[in-house]
Amino acid sequence: MAIVGIDRRFELYAALDVGCWLQSVLLLATSQGVATCAQASLSLFPDIARSILGIPDDVKILFGIGLGYEDTSARANDCRTTRQPLEANVRFLR
Ligand SMILES: Cc1cc2nc3c(=O)[nH]c(=O)nc-3n(C[C@H](O)[C@H](O)[C@H](O)COP(=O)(O)O)c2cc1C
Q1: β-sheet bridge partners, residue 5
Q2: 5, 44, 76, 83 - which has most CB atoms within 10 Å?
Q3: Cβ–ligand 1 contact at 30 (below 6 Å)
């Protein structure tokens, strides 16, 4: 498990940079056969991670990344999400 945080002195735009970095990490892990699951819900309960890992208050916890080798026999790992077609989320103006 990785816990990803950001120095509170940086504001919203730096979180966008972290999001770009996150995608690279997820793609790299996948390319190496390591499964991932990003978990922003972890940021709703920061005190637990803070106390166990000694993360200071000046770091805002953004999300966690679960990393590991997929257990293909576990039913939970059969879950596959679907994707909407491009047109459902992108409007092209000509
Ligand atoms: C930054 C980020 C944070 C996420 N946080 C959560 C979360 O807190 N809880 C959750 O159920 N899914 C969360 N997700 C979605 C899952 O990580 C995952 O993308 C989703 O289960 C769909 O799997 P797939 O991307 O392999 O289709 C998050 C995704 C991203 C990119």
Answers
A1: 61
A2: 5
A3: no
